[in-house]
């Protein structure tokens, strides 16, 4: 009886988080944009702007090219579904989410890759110059970022002897506080990977439509209306998911166990605080750095790889 | 077993020292290189200070202060002035491209970690691993000396090599006698001055600080 | 089942005989090609299915042994069917099932006489591979191995009128034989000097070799089987032979024949040799990493779709070798549970690769039939002309890119888990290097996704680059069935990993004496080692993604609308664009060429802006060809011309040679 109750509660938590992330993700994007506006001495459009954009896009008629195939039309749903699920199974408020068992952190990387391959294929579907340019660059950035990301995850999982995010969180958050230099390195590497994978400056610029610089925007140039809305929403979810992974790996303190009602308000407040700080940090970083030439990106991501490998080696040497 | 926080902190500083060694290896600009060197000195001073605090050895406070004075303030200042006077603010040219250097660097780190493993077994419990990092810093500095083309960056590499040795001394063996440290500090200072004089000489002779020109000096 | 006294090995023997009959029937039915197509090949496919079932049956059964009354006097053939052979029989059967079904439609247009011969060679090839897996003595093994090599050589040179194809076939035959000699020598070493009587594998298992001779045997086997598998630096024949062969043959060669080499390495290393050394594992791991990265890098710059797939096969063979190396390392250090994990990953990936690579190769066959074009720069937009082929190929492309929930991801996941468990080995160098090796695997996997996006995107997506493509037709019914089976296998292997791993445990038990098992204890979650450590459930995941997709699409349509307008794509304000201005395969590979520039030998002719007939020409060659093979070739030519000095064409001189030789021998005796 008691077990059933626990399971029910866990499923409830899972559903709650599913809803929470999908509703909160555009807010995070809005917050980052708002912070950037403040830093640039603009008043900004407000943190709710992404919601307004989504609403506007959903109302419009979808315009697609004559020769668009089924792949082009189904991709926004696949990308959105993948990102939503990825964001929903990362423990950010409570561990022991029942669905976390279905995909460990390596599988999460696989899910991101699945979404990326689909969006790259869809970009090539119409056959315009921008689409395949964007697809090519996106795959370039991803094959450079993926080894670095994997090294980061390796470092984290070496400490907790697990690739399950709940176990990693449990080891770091619910045991005695230990300073892990290896994790500090991994965190730096992770930030670089996060910037690259989420199409942020200095690898890509989410606000540009200049052909020489764009990657992500080039791929989705042919999308409009609800398809575009889903892809934008998926991008928000991806940013949310990456920041959540960062929180779970490096600052999981405050994440509770399922059923711990007393800790719940504090956990939520802490989560919001962490998200706000991460978003503000991202905005500051983007403001102070400049976009790199595309062939400087390998060096930038190489740095991430180097940092992650150093973290791993230091873990072997210092045991921390 | 819970490691005391002071040691955890020293571990973190050691890791950061290694990071800075790599950053120097990757750095393209001379001015940033000198700034990194100053940061390395600052970390070194901080770690010496913490060792002094945790082991309660008063002479280490002096050597921490000395490090701060010499390596964070005086030497970077001298180098900055030197660069200003020589007007050599160009980018550093490397002999091997940077990604390859980095890979060689990682190999060196793995090598020195394994080399230091038996030594660390002998050392006291709290300093295991630090020797490996110090050794890696020294080897990375040597690598930097090998791969750089300009004399100024080679001097910075030399100085950071000395930093690595100093870190090994303070963290692993809790410091050398103060007299020895003073002597080394003085040596480094004098060496920097001598290098400075040499730079002017090299430039007057070759009209450049590129050490590849020195290949002309052999007889044939 | 044993009541009637039938063993899996008997069934396998009958199936091989039936294949012989089918091959010979093909030769006699030259006058009626439609019979060959509609009856012989489907029957052959049925035999493959039964063979796969036999393999599955054999996994759990005790080892069966048989001595045939064939062979030389006093040297009879020995057969044996154990779990390892059983697993590879499944692989052979499952892959050839799809390929044979596809062949039934593919060779429709071929003339009767060529078709009859091809049918015979095709079945001999299948029989050769089956007997390689069943052989239990060196003699039988080498006979089967040579049958396989020769049959595939004739299949490769089916279009022997084209000089390039003859050249490719010759290169293939040459390297196959260099490899075969090394394998023969390896068997010779393993006999342990016990003479001809010790030619059975049982005698080799019993022989006690010291580390030096064991290492010699391992190295010879690694070289010999590596030459067949396409391990660096013996990979050169793969990108030449695969495009030359008809597509179903390429599929069998890449999907199955390369795996027989993997089988050989496993058989020699873990079964025939009784001691293993740790540095073998490191060697295999290092070679595997090099091969994997090399293969995928070159795949990224290819413009010919079959060459691209051939290089991708080299990459996958590299991954398999990495798995074998990891298994060796764990096994030597006594961590047999982890060795079982690495071995499971290796075997799983072999099976996966057999499925998706066969699928992609037969898919290129369908494209070749529809368009007559192998150069990706002249294809494009086929998704609208060939809905079946493009849909089924998409499954293969996603699977080979290692994406969940398909099969490529499962084996990659298992391999990475094995890497993650490597710390704790007693050798600190290996401890630190192995996780870095995992990063190289990640690089290769991510690059594979790059290659596959290029492959699928350039061929199927975009606008047709040539007008002729407007008339491309979709794959025929047999072709669809064949591809459908292979695609289905990719999906099933991806969704039911727990069942597959459970079956693979028989092989691990036999080779290593340890099983992986499933810590989760149910069929939904795959959790090697420990549930706390890692688990993965592709089925849940796929259901959840599909559910969310459906929910989203219904909600969007309900809350807003589903209206669509069609219009021209955005033309960047330049309306004079043609389909030829799209990004080509060459262009898509440009970043790779640029980042890994030192590894390629690049020749490029870039026309000047004032050229009236500008032609761009670019070629990226393999440096190893120039560094390694050409010098060897020159050296060989030098020696042969020296030998040529002995030839004068005068009988007297030759008789003198014979006489001198006789005298010299008599002096020594």
What would your notes on this structure say?
The complex is a heterotrimer of chains A (320), B (220) and C (669). Chain A has one domain (2-318). Helix content of chain A is 70%, strand content 1%. Chain A has eleven helices and one strand. Chain A has helices spanning 2-39, 49-59, 70-88, 105-125, 129-160, 165-173, 181-197, 216-219, 225-250, 264-288, 297-318; one strand at 62-65. The longest helix of chain A is centred in the N-terminal third of the chain and has 38 residues, at 2-39. Chain A starts with a helix and ends with a helix. Chain B is mainly alpha-helical and 220 residues long. Chain B has one domain (5-217). Chain B is built from seven helices and no strands. Chain B has helices at residues 5-26, 30-55, 58-86, 98-122, 130-147, 151-173, 178-206. The model of chain B has no long low-confidence stretch (mean pLDDT 77). Chain C is mostly helical. Among the domains of chain C are: 278-557, no CATH class; 596-607 and 614-668, no CATH class. Chain C contains 23 helices and five strands. Chain C has helices at 8-28, 33-60, 83-106, 112-134, 138-156, 163-190, 201-206, 211-229, 238-244, 247-272, 278-300, 305-332, 336-371, 387-400, 407-420, 428-460, 477-495, 497-512, 538-559, 585-588, 590-595, 623-644, 651-668, and strands at residues 64-72, 75-81, 564-567, 600-605, 617-622. Chain C has a two-stranded antiparallel sheet with strand order 1-2. In chain C, strands 4-5 form a two-stranded antiparallel ribbon. In chain C, strand 1 (64-72) and strand 2 (75-81) form a beta hairpin. The radius of gyration of chain C is 26 Å and the shape is globular. The model of chain C has no long low-confidence stretch (mean pLDDT 87). Chains A and C meet through strand 1, helix 3, helix 4, helix 5 and helix 11 of A and helix 15, helix 16, helix 19, strand 3 and helix 21 of C. Strand 1 of chain A pairs parallel with strand 3 of chain C.
């Amino acid at each position: 009886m008691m077990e059933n109750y626990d399971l029910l509660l866990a499923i409830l938590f899972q559903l709650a988080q599913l809803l929470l992330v999908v509703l909160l993700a555009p807010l995070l994007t809005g917050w980052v944009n708002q912070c950037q506006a403040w830093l640039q001495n603009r008043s900004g459009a407000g943190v709710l702007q992404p919601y307004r954009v989504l609403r506007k896009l959903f109302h419009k008629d979808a315009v697609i090219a004559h020769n668009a195939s089924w792949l082009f039309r189904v991709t926004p749903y696949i990308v959105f579904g993948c990102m939503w699920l990825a964001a929903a199974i990362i423990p950010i408020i409570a561990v022991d989410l029942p669905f976390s068992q279905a995909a460990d952190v390596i599988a999460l990387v696989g899910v991101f890759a699945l979404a990326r391959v689909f969006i790259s294929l869809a970009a090539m579907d119409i056959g315009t110059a921008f689409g395949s340019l964007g697809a090519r660059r996106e795959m370039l950035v991803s094959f450079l970022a993926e080894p670095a990301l994997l090294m980061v995850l390796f470092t984290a999982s070496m400490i907790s002897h697990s690739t399950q995010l709940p176990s990693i969180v449990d080891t770091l958050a619910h045991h005695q506080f230990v300073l892990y230099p290896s994790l500090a390195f991994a965190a730096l590497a992770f930030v670089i990977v996060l910037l690259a994978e989420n199409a942020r400056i200095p690898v890509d610029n989410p606000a540009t439509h200049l052909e020489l610089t764009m990657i992500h925007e080039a791929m989705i140039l042919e999308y409009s209306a609800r398809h575009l809305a889903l892809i934008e929403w998926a991008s928000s979810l991806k940013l949310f998911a990456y920041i959540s992974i960062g929180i779970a790996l490096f600052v999981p303190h405050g994440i509770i166990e399922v059923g711990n009602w007393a800790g719940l308000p504090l956990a939520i407040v802490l989560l919001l605080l962490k998200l706000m700080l991460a978003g503000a940090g991202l905005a500051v970083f983007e403001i102070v750095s400049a976009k790199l030439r595309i062939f400087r990106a390998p060096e930038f991501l190489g740095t991430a790889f180097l940092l992650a490998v150093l973290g791993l080696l230091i873990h072997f040497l210092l045991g921390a | 077993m819970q490691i005391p926080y002071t040691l955890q902190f020293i571990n973190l500083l050691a890791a950061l020292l290694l990071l800075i060694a790599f950053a120097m290896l990757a750095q393209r600009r001379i001015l940033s290189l000198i700034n990194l060197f100053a940061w390395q000195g600052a970390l070194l001073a901080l770690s010496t200070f913490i060792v002094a605090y945790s082991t309660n050895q008063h002479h280490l406070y002096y050597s921490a202060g000395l490090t701060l004075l010499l390596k964070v303030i005086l030497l970077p200042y001298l180098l900055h002035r030197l660069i200003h006077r020589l007007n050599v603010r160009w980018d550093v040219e490397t002999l091997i491209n940077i990604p390859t250097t980095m890979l060689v660097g990682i190999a060196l780190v793995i090598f020195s970690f394994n080399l230091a493993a038996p030594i660390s077994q002998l050392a006291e419990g709290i300093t295991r691993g630090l020797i490996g990092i110090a050794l890696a810093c020294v080897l990375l500095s040597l690598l930097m000396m090998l791969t750089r083309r300009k004399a100024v960056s080679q001097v910075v590499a030399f100085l950071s090599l000395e930093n690595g040795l100093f870190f090994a001394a303070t963290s692993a063996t809790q410091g050398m006698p103060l007299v020895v440290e003073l002597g080394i500090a003085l040596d480094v200072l004098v060496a920097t001055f001598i290098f400075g004089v040499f730079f002017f000489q090299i430039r007057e002779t070759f009209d450049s600080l590129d050490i590849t020109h020195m290949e002309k000096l052999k007889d044939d | 089942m044993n009541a009637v006294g039938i063993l899996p090995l008997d069934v396998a023997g009958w199936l091989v005989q039936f294949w012989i009959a089918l091959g010979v029937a093909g030769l006699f039915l030259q006058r009626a090609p439609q019979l060959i197509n509609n009856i012989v090949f489907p029957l052959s496919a049925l035999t493959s299915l039964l063979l796969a079932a036999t393999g599955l049956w054999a996994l759990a059964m005790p080892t069966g042994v048989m001595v045939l009354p064939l062979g030389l006097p006093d040297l009879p053939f020995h057969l044996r069917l154990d779990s390892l052979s059983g697993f590879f029989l499944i692989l052979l059967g499952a892959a050839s099932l799809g390929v044979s079904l596809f062949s039934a439609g593919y060779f429709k247009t071929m003339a009767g006489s060529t078709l009859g011969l091809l049918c015979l060679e095709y079945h001999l090839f299948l029989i050769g591979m089956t007997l390689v897996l069943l052989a239990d003595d060196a003699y039988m093994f080498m006979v089967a191995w040579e049958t396989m090599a020769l049959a595939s050589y004739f299949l490769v040179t089916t279009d022997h009128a084209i000089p390039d194809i003859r050249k490719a076939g010759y290169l293939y035959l040459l390297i196959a034989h260099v490899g075969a000699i090394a394998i023969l020598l390896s068997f010779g070493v393993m006999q342990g000097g016990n003479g001809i009587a010790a030619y059975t594998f049982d005698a080799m298992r019993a022989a006690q070799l010291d580390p030096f001779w064991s290492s010699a045997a391992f190295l010879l086997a690694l070289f010999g089987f590596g030459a067949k598998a396409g391990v660096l630096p013996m990979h050169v024949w793969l990108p030449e032979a695969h495009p030359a062969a008809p597509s179903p043959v390429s599929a069998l060669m890449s999907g199955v024949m390369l795996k027989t080499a993997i089988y050989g390495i496993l058989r020699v290393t873990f079964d025939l040799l009784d001691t293993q050394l740790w540095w073998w594992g490191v060697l295999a791991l290092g070679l595997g990493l090099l091969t994997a990265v090399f293969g995928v890098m070159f795949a990224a710059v290819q413009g010919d779709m079959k060459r691209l797939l051939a290089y991708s096969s080299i990459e996958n063979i590299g991954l398999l070798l990495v798995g074998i190396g990891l298994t060796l390392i764990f096994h030597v250090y006594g961590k047999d549970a982890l060795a079982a994990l690495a071995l499971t990953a290796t075997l799983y990936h072999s099976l996966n690769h057999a499925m998706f690579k066969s699928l992609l190769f037969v898919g290129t066959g369908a494209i070749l039939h529809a368009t007559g074009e192998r150069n990706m720069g002249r294809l494009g937009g086929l998704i609208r002309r060939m809905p079946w082929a493009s849909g089924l190929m998409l499954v293969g492309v996603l699977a080979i890119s290692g994406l969940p929930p398909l099969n490529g991801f499962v084996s990659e996941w298992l391999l990475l888990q094995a890497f993650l468990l490597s710390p704790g080995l007693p050798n600190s160098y290996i401890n630190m290097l192995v996780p870095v090796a995992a990063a190289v695997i990640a690089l290769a996997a991510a690059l594979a996704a790059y290659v596959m996006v290029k492959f699928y995107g350039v061929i199927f997506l975009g606008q047709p680059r040539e007008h002729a493509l407007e008339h491309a037709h979709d794959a025929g019914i047999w072709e669809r069935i064949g591809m459908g089976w292979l695609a289905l296998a990719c999906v099933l292997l991806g969704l039911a990993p727990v069942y597959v791993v459970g079956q693979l445990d028989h092989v691990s038990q036999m080779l290593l004496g340890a099983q992986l098992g499933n810590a989760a204890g149910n069929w939904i979650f795959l959790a090697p080692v420990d549930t706390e450590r890692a688990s993965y459930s592709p089925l849940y995941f796929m259901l959840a993604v599909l559910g969310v997709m459906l929910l989203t699409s219904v909600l969007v349509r309900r809350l807003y609308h589903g209206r669509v307008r069609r219009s021209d794509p955005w033309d960047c304000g330049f309306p004079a664009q043609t389909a030829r201005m799209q990004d080509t395969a060459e262009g898509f590979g440009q970043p790779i060429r640029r980042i890994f520039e030192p590894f390629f030998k690049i020749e490029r002719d870039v026309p000047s802006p004032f050229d009236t007939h500008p032609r761009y020409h670019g070629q990226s060659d393999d440096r190893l060809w120039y560094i390694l093979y050409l010098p060897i070739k020159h050296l060989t030519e030098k020696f042969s011309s020296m030998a040529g000095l002995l030839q004068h064409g005068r009988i007297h001189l030759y008789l003198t040679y014979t006489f001198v030789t006789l005298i010299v021998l008599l002096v020594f005796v």
